[in-house]
Amino acid sequence: MHWQALAAASASASAKRLAAICQPSKMTSTPVIVTRSKPGADQTAQALKERGLTAIVTPAIELSRSEAALPDLSVYGGLIFTSANGVRFLAAETDARDLPAWCVGPATASEALLEGYSPVHQSSGNAEDLAHYIAHHWPADQSKRLLHVANSAAKGIVKAALEHEGFEVDFLALYEAANAPALHPDAVSAIASSPSIVLVHSAKGARAFMDLSAGLDLQRVSYVAISEQAAGPLREGGKDQIEIADHPDEAHLLEALDRLLAAR
Question: Domain Tetrapyrrole biosynthesis uroporphyrinogen III synthase, which positions (predicted)?
């Protein structure tokens, strides 16, 4: 999807959801614990507050710049981003914005547009969907060498799928994700004192939350996960009170939260 169409679609979708986002929730007393890394955690917290909910930010994952050297971008025909964090870290390293950015979903594409990349192409779904989208929308006259910017724990799904289609993909682990030292005291207090809800944006974040919450009584905790993949570590840990977003993006995650609250 070219950036002009993307911008129009994003504006339309935002307008449709604005009223819902600004509607106060009936369940304002239920604390919602946000485990994603910053700055995304603050954006989610703001959306929760606009819903009339109590948001507690406690990133389970902390991000930092890796020691990887930035390659010469002029040898590539495009950039692959599988998270908004990848966009942020690369944008902080270089002023180059002229390579096409191929992004996995609206949040990543929106971040690329915000940082000034052009053109920006957006797939929907997961890494496999992005690889399929790139392979079937690649300009015939453009170099098929791509740079995938991600964190050091990325699985390489995009690289493997595109190389099968005749592309050359270099992987740049530009940042690292590590468990936070501890949960925020407010999150610990909320879990101990009342029923609460934990938002999960990734499998790594879910696994980190499980590690950090070891020893806490989680019987009254419910979970809302952005995808089944993200919920995997929760299920492995015996958690079954999990609401799954219909589509792996922030808007649908919040809709899943609304469903859980309405059912209470």
Answer: 42-255
pLDDT value at 10 more than 60: no
CATH architecture of 29-60+183-262: 3-Layer(aba) Sandwich (3.40)
Q: According to CATH, what is the number of the domain 64-178? A: 3.40.50.10090
Cα 63 from Cα 89, distance rounded (Å):
10
Taken in order 100, 103, 109, 114, the sign of the CA dihedral is negative
pLDDT of residue 248: 85
Which pLDDT score is estimated for 124?
82
| CA pair distance 38, 238, nearest whole angstrom | 28
Place of tokens 């096409």: 100
Q: Which pLDDT does position 182 carry in this prediction?
A: 98
Report whether 202 contacts 233 (CB < 8 A).
no
| CA atoms of 101 and 122, how far apart (whole Å) | 8
State the average pLDDT for the chain.
89
Is 29-60+183-262's fold the same as 64-178's?
A: yes
- Domains in the chain: boundaries: 29-60+183-262, 64-178
247 contacts: CB under 8 Å, gap ≥ 6? 124, 125
Task: State the DSSP string of 82-125.
Answer: SSHHHHHHHHHH-----S-EEEESHHHHHHHHHTT-SSEEEE-S
